[in-house]
Amino acid sequence: MNSKTKYFHLKVIDLDKILPHEEYDSSRAEPLVANLKKSQILLNPILVTHLEGDRYVQLDGMNRFTAMKLMKVPSILTQVLDYNDQASVDLSTWSHFNKIQKDDFLELISKITGISYKMVGEKYLKRRYISDEGEGFLCAIVFKDGSIYRVAADGELTDKVKLLHKIVDLYKKDITREVIEDDVDLEDITSLYENQKEMRTLVIFPTFTRHQILHIVKNGQLFPGGITRFIIRPRCLDVHYPLEYLKGNEDETVKNCKLENYLSKKTFRIYEESTVYFEP
Question: Are strands 201-204 and 136-143 parallel, antiparallel or unpaired?
């Protein structure tokens, strides 16, 4: 095995062996199809972890995964993660800004059967874990006026994920994602609103455990798109892998030999420091 393939855990895997864990975003996946058809290059591998047998779970890259399916390309380049290695994989979450006014948003969520909400203090911004069963935290909402609401629900984890879908469905066509750290305070969020002039509502989601994510996948459910977040060390970017090596009905072994040959000709750099990438 090529040392780069082994070290970075890059592997070509058939799409039908990969189970998604989240919904895809059609507003992103469909334009991506056009870009891939034009460039014939897959820029970055998707992230997966081994489930059991020859099955894997998609962790990141759902829109790339979906685009390849729409193009009927049978396999995809992946970076295979050791999901339980906490030194290499951190679990986090995205939060969602949207433009719905406070009164309108509260009215909308009041119509969702199975949830309750109440106005709370700032300390609830830091309690962001979801229980497997029973009544508990579902998400927090911070409005532009600084008011904070705790949204709660009862039931099994699978029931709570269904309710998260209903909340995200209220604004899913117009989402701005943001990272909210665990030690956030109201002053931090006020500063974020200053940079998001048009936004009126911020929905802060729980951080799910490894067990919870796999439980939902094995149950045949999907998380809403753009909630779960995985921080990977190291993460492989800008591989620029030609789609021609992923097409056709060749065996995975053959396709991975082509991957090893391709990587053997490429140089790479590893950045030890945190890096900020400004998207074009």
Answer: antiparallel
Report the DSSP beta bridge partners of residue 118: 150
Strand order in the sheet with 10-14: 10-14, 75-81, 46-52, 55-60, 18-19
Reported as a single tens digit per residue, the pLDDT across 156-194 is: 999 999 999 999 999 998 889 999 988 888 999 999 999
Integer-rounded Cα radius of gyration of the chain: 20
Q: What is the mean pLDDT of residues 110-131?
A: 90
Q: How far is CA 137 from CA 91, 114, 172, 273, in A?
A: 18, 13, 21, 35
Say whether the peptide bond before residue 234 is cis (omega within 30 degrees of 0): yes
Give SS3 for 117.
strand
Q: pLDDT of 268-280, one tens digit each? A: 887 766 777 776 6
Looking at residue 49, its amino acid is T
Residue 153: CB partners within 8 Å, gap ≥ 6?
114, 115, 116, 135, 136, 138, 159, 160, 163
Nearest to 136 by CA among 167, 114, 165: 114
Q: Report the pLDDT value the prediction gives residue 72, as an integer from 0 to 100.
A: 96
Q: Can you count the helices (H) and strands (E) in the chain? A: 8, 15
Structure token digits, residue 7 = 């070290």
